Amino acid sequence: MHSGALWGRLPGRPRQGSVWRAVRGGKLFDGTWASNHHSSARYATTSSVSRDSATAPSTTASRASSLHDAFVSRFSAQILSSPHRDITHVPYGDWFALYVQARKHWHALDSAPARVTPASREGGNTEGSEDAEVLEAHVRHAKQGIDAMLLSSLFARHWTEVHTVTTSTPSSSPLSTYRWWWHHDSLFSAEAPASAPDRDAVPPPLELCTPGFLTEPLLGGNHVRLWMEGIRASAGVTDAAQDAAAVPTAIIPFSSLWVVKRSAYCRPSAADGSGVLGNSGAGSSGHETATFTLQERQARQALLQSVDQLLQLQREAVERHEDTLGFPADQLQRVCVLSPTQEWDLLCDLPRYRQALCRPARPASSADMSVLEGSEAASISPPRWLLLSCLCEDTSTRLAYYAHTLSWRRQLRSSANAPAIEAAPFAVRVLSPASEHARFRNLSLFSLHEQSFMKAPLQRRHVARHRSSSSVVSGASAAATVHEQARKGCSEAVRRMSRREENIRQSFWVR
C-alpha cells in the first residue's frame, strides 16, 4: 500500500517536472552529447584489459544504441512540443540543423579510436568490421525512426496518429507497427537496378513532383487517380517488371509534402517565429504561408490522404508480386517518397556539388588540358542560389537543387572517372504547372513538364478497362479516391442539415 510513497522517497529517482522541462528546453541531451561527445565516446570505448573479446560487440552496440536513441528522442521531443504535433510549425532549417548535429555525432562515434587490448590484437580486423557493421545498422535504424516520425506527422489526420518514441514499447522496434509509406521499400532508392547485367544499363528515368503540381486538380489530382487505378488493376506492376528501365519513377519529395501540409491548415500568423531548437539561422519563407479558403485547405488534406492510400496500395501490390516475379521492391514501384533524411543527406553534399560545378569538364587531349589550365575558364563560380540559407528557406530552390544533385549522382555512377559535371543525359524531369516554369528556368532547370511520362499509357488502359466493362461506372471506381469520398460525405451532411432545418421550421409553424 505504501509502495508509491516509498518509491517517491527514493534518492535516485528523478523528478518528472525537471525531466520534462529539460526535454522541452533541449537541455537534457544538449549538455550531455553536444558538449561532451568526445568524452562520452571515449568513456564508451574504454574497456578493461582483463575482459575478453566477446564483450566488444556488445559494448559497441550499447554505445551506438544509446547515442542514436538520444538523437531520435530529441526529434520526438521536438515533435511533442510542436502544436498538434505538426512538424511544419517548426522551420525546415531547424530540423536540418538538428539532423546535422546527429550526423556529426555519428561520424565522431564512427571515427572514435577504440582502446587496443591483447584480445583485440589476437582477433585482428574481425572485431573492427563487426563494430562498423553494428554502427552502420544503428545509423540506418535511427534514420528510419526519424523518417517514420516526421512522415507520420505529415500524413496524420489527428495528432494521436503521429508516431513518436513514446508510442512504441522500449523492447520493440519503433517501426514494428508501421509498414506502409514509411517502410524503407516505399522510400526512394538511388542505387542502380539490381537486375542490370552490366554497369552500362540505363537506369529508369526520374520525375520530381513539385507542390504546385500536386495541388493542381487537373495535374497532380488526375495523376494520383490514374496511379491508384493502375495499381488496383495490377497492370502497372507487370509492366514495371517487364521493362523496369522504361517505366519512370515518380518522386514525391518531403519538401513538397511539407508545403502541402503547411497550407492544409489555417495558421494564426503568416510570419513564423524562431523554432524551439535554437537560432539555426533558417526560417520559412513568407510566400509558402499564403491564405487559402476552406475548400482549398480541405482539398490539400484530402490530397495527403490520397497519397498515403496510394503508397499503401502500392506496397500491397509489391508484396503480392515480389515473390512471383522475382524483382526487387524498388523496381516494382512507380511512386516513392524522398524521405527527410535522404533530402538532408543531399543538402550535406552541397560542398561537393559546388566543387564539382566549379571544376571544368574534362578536355579531349592533354594539349587541351594545358590550354585549359592557363585559361580563365578553369574557375567557374557557382550560381548565387547555391547557398545553404537559400536552400533551407525557399522550397523551389531546394527542389531545383535536388533535381540537379540526383542527375549529378547518376552521372557519377555511370562514369566513375568523370571528375566534373558534364551535359549528362540523366536529366531529372520536373513535374510542375506552366506558371512555375519561368521560376525553375532561372534555376537552370529545363526538363519541365506538366504531364508525367506514364500518363498516356495509364489513360489508354483506363479507357480500355471502361470499354471492356459492362457497367459504365462501378461502385469501386466511383469511390476511387479519398477526395470523392469526402465530397459524397459533405453532400450527405448538407442534405441532412437542410432536412433538419426544414423539420425545425415546420415545428415552429405548428406551434
TrEMBL record:
Record field: compositional bias (Low complexity): 50-63
Ranges of biased composition (kind: Polar residues): 40-49
Positions of the UniProt region annotated as Disordered: 40-63
Domain of life of the native organism: Eukaryota
Record-given protein name: Uncharacterized protein
Provenance organism: Leishmania martiniquensis
